[in-house]
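Please, does this match?
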Amino acid sequence: MLSFPENFPEKPPLNPPFAFIRWMWWQQRGQLAIAALIAALNFALLALTPYVLGLAIDSGLDDGLTGQLWAYAGILLALGVATAFASSARHIAEVGCWMRGSFTSTSLVSRHVSRTGRNTTKNLSTGEVVATVATDAHHVGNLMENTPMTLGGLAAYVMVAGLMLRDSVPLGIAVLVGLPVVTAIVALLIPKLQERQQKHREATGRLTGLASDTVAGLRVLRGIGGEDEFTERYRHQSQKVREAGVGVANTQSILTAFQVLLPGAFAVGIVWFGAVLAVRGELTVGQLVTFYGYTAFLAEPMRQMTMFIQFFTRAIVAAKRYGAVLSTEPAAGDLAESDDVSARDVSSLTSAATSPGTRGLSETNPGTLPYQPVLHDGELDLDITPGRMTVLVSQQPDLAVEALRRMGRVDDERSQSVLIDGTPVRELALAEVRGTTVFSDSTPELFTGTLRSEVDIRDTGDETAVRTALDVADAHDVLDSLGGDLDGEIAERGRSLSGGQRQRVALARAVLAASPILLLADPTSAVDAHTEQRIAANLARFRSGMTTVLATTSPLVLEHSDEVVYLTEAGVVTRGAHRDLMRAARNGDPAAREYRSVVTRRDDESEA
């Protein structure tokens, strides 16, 4: 696994796109330099082969089978063996450069997405992010792989130029001028190729996003009979990708043909010109063979230069996509704070956080927590009583859930009015907030992996704590379905579990965090009434003495709460114990009657 150095920046330079490529070169400059030296050695050995062969031919023609000719033969054999070893070493070094470039690019995106969260998908689809990892990283890797070959080829080109000009100035000038001209002609096709590659890249990203969305919603599609509609959409988009791919292939095939045709035709011309000089006596036969070998050899560095231009244009296109992904900022805090959260054990940031493994499910917290933070939401003028289980109720469920998001500092823009102990939550270090407050959304995500890793996200290694958290969430059936093994595998996004099971595993994950403040958005919406009753009772016992805030209208949860707060957009309408509010409603209190109509889903006439 690649590790980032201590001076790894929050994000690489992104504008212009070349700045990102330059940064990638600099990050692996040592590896690129070693690979370039090996490539230069390999090309030098290849270039020396026609030089020694020409000397051997002239020696044989002049003096016959002599010791000198045998010496040249031995040198050629040694050059062949050395070239084989150098070619193998060059390939290994180049693959290493490809892997470093590709994996660093992939790690950049993965690391950045983990720090920015949902903000990444506000402007980019999931498919775009996936395509950046799957496709663009490959193009960046190709450029890193080709860079040493190009540098080594240029070094060999300079060496051969000196040898050619020493033997024949006219022929040397013809080769040294002609090959760059041939390369420039071939390079004229590259802008058109880049344009078509860009279109193909965009079409591929849209197709990947469509496929990802379709797979994620496959169960829903089957339920409403929408498979055919989405299949047709996918077929239509895939045809666009095919057409764009054919356009790229057409231009690529023409470019490849010119890469073979023009250097080949140039080699024929050089041989003819050399033959004319040999007939005139200006070149020996051996020198003619040497010049032909030089021409054939120099076609390879020129081909590498053409390939470098191709890979560079593709990498520039990829760098633009990386810029779109890496320019995203976190919704809460900044990138440095996000790194601080991931690098530190946030559970140790507050003395109020205790491990759930320290007591059994049937026990209550004896109130040993010395301190509980006070939450205040200025937007609703709402104070949360510390150390109690509070339920937020509203006729508009999103209103209560949004209040929890503000308190959990999910988004800095929305959390401007939230105070913790009188301090604006945005002024606190993000790591401190995350160590004090845990927010679990109503639609939490699960990942591929074991049940243990899903619940114990901080990798505490405390099996007793994990099992206790599962008990609190009444998720023992999930454990039973895996043979009682915490290391049993859960499929991607928890698809092997029912909706209720996924919700309870996510609840166990939140409970295990043992945060002083736990914010739960409708945590029992996908379970049956009996399970909901047990979960509510478990939470009330297990979280006794700690601040727990829920957003729900379920009477089964309300019965176990310490306090209920009824909200409207104007703020707090009324608050108190659930039974007290219901009693007040029967006595005619208008606010309590409004609360009763929300939690019982009946109006006053029906209630009567």
